[in-house]
Amino acid sequence: MAWWRAGAAAVAGMALLVLVIWWGMDGTAALRMGAMGALLVSAYSSQARAQRKGQSPALWLLLGLFPPTQLFLGSLPGRPAGDRLDRHERWATLLSAILVLGAATWTVLTFVDYTHRTSPITYDFDWGLFFSTRYDATTGTTLHYGRMLLSGLRVTIAISCISAAVALVLGTLVGVARLVPIPPLRLLAAAYVEFFRNIPLLVQLFFWYFGLTTVTPLWVNKFLYQYPFEIIAATVGLAIYTSSYIAEVVRAGIQAVPRGHLEAALATGLTGPQALRWVVLPQAFRTVIPPLGSQLLNNLKNSSLVMTIAVADLTWNSQQIQAYSFKGFEPTTAATVLYLAMSLAIAGMVHLVERWSAVPGVRS
Amino acid sequence: MRHRWGLVGAMVVVAVGFALGSPVPAAADLLQEVLGRGTVRVGLRTANVPFGFFDKKGNHIGFDVDISQAIIRRLSKKFKRPLRMEKVPVDAKTRIAFIIARKIDMAAATMTHTRSRDENIDFTITYFFDGQRMLARKGEFKSLKEFVGHKISTVQGTTSEQNVEKLFRDLGDPNPRILSFQQHPEAFMALKQGKVDGYTTDSTILLGTARGDPGVELVGEFFSDEPYGIGLPENESNWRDELNFALQDILRDGTYKTIYNRWFGPKTLFHMPLTRKLETWP
User: Fold this and answer.
1) pLDDT tens digits for A154-172?
2) What is the DSSP letter of B225?
3) Gap between the Cα atoms of A356 and A350, Å rounded
4) Residues of chain A found within 8 Å of residue B106, distances taken between Cβ atoms
5) Which domains does chain B have, with CATH numbers?
6) A1, A110, A115: which to substitute to probe chain B, counting the most B Cβ within 10 Å?
7) What is the mean pLDDT of chain A?
8) Contact A310 B186 (CB under 8 A)
9) Could you tell me whether strands B132-137 and B198-202 are parallel, antiparallel, or unpaired per DSSP bridges?
10) Cα–Cα nearest to B227, from B98, B125, B158, B90
11) For residue A21, is pLDDT > 60?
12) What's the CATH architecture for A141-357?
């Protein structure tokens, strides 16, 4: 009975082709076509699978039209409990879900009435923007938007990595300081956390860049200005802001270690710092790896604010491209995709660290 | 095997509807649309003294604001329709995108009329002539050549940014160090604090941002021509004609001169004599 499927696929394909030729092909149409295809494939494969497994094809056909539901609905009427989608099915549905949601968003965007007009405004996507050199008629210079974006990416990665490293060290010190039995130190650490955690990052960046140098002596400023001071200020600002959050995470991790462990460590003759280094912190860090990862993600995304103090990071460059090319959606989308990719990379690394550091047989 | 053809059919209908959401080109005439709406949406800068900025009471004022108001009054009189001005804040990066997206009908936003911009939007005739210069702390620099190798501040997304890069390359500096801030006050503050050695943009904006600060001075000659035009959507020739006529009318009846003297007259901080004659058609 496979012939009707092949026939239906052929007819659908022809219909698509006719539609494309009839209405012309622009970026929006292409995306809609892709999404439509994905939708059909998703629905079709979904009902085919249901048939294979002897379940209601109609139900699964419907579910295929709303791919995300398949990710969450493991067991359905007629399906044994725990019979979840396998890896390939998951990826296929996720992909089609993204395409469908993208296309739906796009359709809505296309119909957004920017001008109180009754007719929709289209937007012609020009992804070639990033892959070729553009000549600027006004200044007679050439620009390569793709390279601009990459140079911004480099700055963002550098600032995020350095500030994250500094923040981890600083945050751990402050987090520990909040728990040591020395009241002045504890108070100081608490003040540090509450101060830097509760002031908007934007204000802090302006402080580090514009504010601080009004009180430091002139020779210090002269020395600093030899270097790219805006990048230094941005990195320091980010590091200190993130460290206040990390301090709280570390404190929570330490407090999650049962008090008995510390007492036992001290009872065996370890000194306070030794007990901290060999007994408490190793456990605390394993507990806080996931929330620490979240802070690293925040650190990356917060780095987009450094453009306000003239650091040419990824966001700055995407806006620069917008200013020169008059196209907003492409550079913004490209920057979004790059931020997402970096975030996923960080999340992946954090996950790996979590697995490597796990004690065999112990569930964190 | 049972197949639910009804479902398949419904699915196809949904999918085809999805695909048919095909764009229809905009046909209406912007002039008629504006007159029908009764509001003109004008893109104005927010931190450009003296073109578009907020005074201490929070009023959005400036040369560009007054010119737009005068033009709209003219249009209102000519078409015998009350027209209201809606002030839409824009910055150097959004002004053109807003015009293209038709979020605004015109942008009086210190916008230099350039060929590359003209590929995407249209402009009225030039309503203000300016040129780019360099501002430095008093007594530190004598000529533009001396700035080579020094850090310069300006604002992101402006022609100033491109011009100064070109200037430095022409002066033999392959890697100009230019810091592009988001607004003019920040670029000026960077100069005052010594983080950069020069701050460059169109001369009137330099003077406007400095607001008579005695610690800074203009150095060197003009190094660019910046004819300002009012930006408007591409291919709206009726709308462009009316804006051009209105501009020339306020030039003829002296309204332009009054506005000019209010912002650039001898008694102002930004005194700049009106040297070049604006275009008027007989």
Assistant:
1) 999 999 999 999 999 999 9
2) -
3) 10
4) none
5) 30-130+226-264 (3.40.190.10), 132-219 (3.40.190.10)
6) A115
7) 80
8) yes
9) antiparallel
10) B125
11) no
12) Orthogonal Bundle (1.10)
